[in-house]
Specification:
Low-confidence stretches: 1-10
Largest sheet: 5 strands, antiparallel
Mean pLDDT: 77
Strand order of the largest sheet: 2-1-5-4-3
Distance between the termini: 92 Å
Structural class: alpha+beta
Strand content: 15-25%
């Protein structure tokens, strides 16, 4: 709103000062001087002359004008300095230098300058508080986006990427904001995602689930239009459901494996009981044979239940371990001795090689022997008649490295990735029975010892399972 220019009396005070000085000088000095001049002229018999009086008047006015001009110059210069300071303060305010801004406290006796200074000072304080609040919100938003496990990508209607958080950069293999201002088609090259983004631009929020990347990740992608709050922008939210998908696969494997393993012994028990009821009980030799088979099937069911309970206790942290120094040769030889008969029945040679001077390991011998037995049983399933299974132990610095090697059918890459999962069994193992828990239990036991377990295998060239356990320090017992 345009304000009218007001006539300010306080700006004319130097002029009033001049007039006042002149009036005071005139009243104080002019009448006596006039009388004196007149009396002097009469005494001399001369006619009074007005020129000296006029000169005196002019001199008085000039003297007053000089005083007023000096005061006005001083006052104007003072205001000029104040205005320069206020001008510099406004310039700093425009440049965002709120803390460095200087507004003089004394701005003279003009209320307008005082109001202007107060307004600038208040504006600077409010602007600084507002900017600090914005910075705090920005830092908070940046921290949230950076720590989100979900990927966030925002692009304008032209397809130019405006923002990507760290999760999205990792997902699309973009480093350090390199994706900013790139076209969305340069970063996202999957047709399903581009189609989703095009639909999102029109304001249609949609959700799709896709398989993404060379090592497949299962993503739920949500397209969100930001038109109401941020015109021209849209967002894609990438939620990694790989873990949920993996859990679903494990659940299905569990149902499939347990159903298969339960069906076999239950069907066997049903057939045996029907045979006995049909008259086999009257033949003691046949009845004994069928009861023995029933006992075997019950043992299989018991083993399955025990393995399920064992894995449950390990994962819940309720599994007890009793650590003590043990020599690698003892652990290997005990396991080989227990499994030799089973290997011979399958026509497989079982051997081992472990130097006597290997460092001891701090372990629970019973649990480590269980790892060896699980690995040997697994090798027997995959090794044909006439094959060979060999166990080794060797010094590996601060650890002792164990291996169980077979010359069986090998394991595919797809199965190697999942072989230590709960309830997972490769197809070739189904005929051999088992719940698919042995390798998962072995993995938990090794990790509880502070070790690591893995497998190396090629189809048709056998497999080697490795696991390492920390060695007892040389100064240990």
């Amino acid at each position: 709103m345009k304000k009218k220019i007001r006539f300010q009396l306080h700006t004319l005070w130097p002029i009033f000062l001049v007039v006042a000085v002149c009036v005071i000088a005139f009243v104080s000095f002019f009448p006596p001087i006039v009388r004196t001049i007149q009396e002097h002229a009469i005494e001399l018999g001369e006619v009074p002359n007005a020129k000296p009086l006029l000169l005196l008047l002019i001199t008085t006015l000039a003297f007053g004008l000089m005083i007023g001009l000096a005061v006005n110059i001083y006052n104007t210069n003072e205001r000029f300095v104040v205005l320069e300071n206020l001008k510099a303060a406004i310039k700093d305010l425009g440049e965002g230098q709120f803390r460095e801004i200087y507004v003089p406290k004394y701005v003279g006796n003009m209320p307008e300058l005082k109001e202007l200074g107060d307004a600038i000072r208040t504006t600077a304080q409010q602007a600084e508080e507002y900017i600090n609040a914005l910075k705090k919100q920005k830092n908070m938003l940046s921290a949230v986006l950076s720590n989100m496990t979900d990927g966030v990508l925002i692009a304008n209607e032209d397809g130019s990427i405006q923002m990507m958080n760290e999760a999205a950069e990792t997902l699309f293999d973009v480093k350090n904001d390199e994706g900013i201002n790139l076209q969305i088609s340069d970063v996202i090259q999957q047709s399903d995602l581009l189609e989703l983004w095009n639909k999102t631009k029109t304001g249609k929020a949609e959700t799709i689930t896709i398989e993404f990347g060379q090592e497949p990740k299962f993503l739920q992608v949500v397209g969100i239009s930001l038109e109401e709050d941020l015109p021209g922008l849209s967002m894609l939210l990438f939620q990694d459901l790989s873990h949920t998908h993996q859990l679903d696969i494990i659940r299905r494997d569990f149902v499939s494996n347990v159903s298969h393993e339960l069906r076999t012994p239950v069907a066997g028990l049903k057939a045996i009981s029907e045979t006995l009821l049909d008259g086999a009980l009257d033949e003691p030799a046949v009845a004994r044979k069928f009861v023995s088979r029933m006992n075997s099937e019950v043992d299989n069911l018991t083993q399955m239940i025990n393995e399920l309970l064992e894995l449950s206790r390990i994962e819940a942290g309720e599994y007890s371990f009793y650590f003590k120094p043990a020599t690698p040769i003892e652990l290997i030889s005990n396991a080989v001795e227990r499994m030799t008969l089973q290997a011979e029945r399958m026509g497989i040679i079982l051997s081992y090689d472990a130097p006597d001077d290997l460092p001891k390991i701090l372990a629970d011998p019973i649990r480590v022997s269980q790892v060896f037995i699980n690995l040997i049983q697994n090798a027997i399933k995959f090794t044909p008649n006439g094959g060979h299974i060999h166990l080794t132990a060797q010094d590996a610095g601060p650890k002792v490295l164990f291996s169980v090697q077979d010359d069986g059918v090998g394991i595919t890459k797809r199965d190697r990735i999942r072989i230590f999962e709960r309830f997972y069994k490769v197809d070739r193992a189904r005929s051999g029975g088992g719940t698919g828990l042995g390798l998962s239990i072995s993995k938990h036991i090794v990790e509880k010892h502070g070790g690591h377990i893995w497998v190396e295998s090629e189809v048709g060239q056998g497999s080697t399972f490795y696991f390492s356990l920390p060695a007892v320090p040389k100064d240990g017992s």
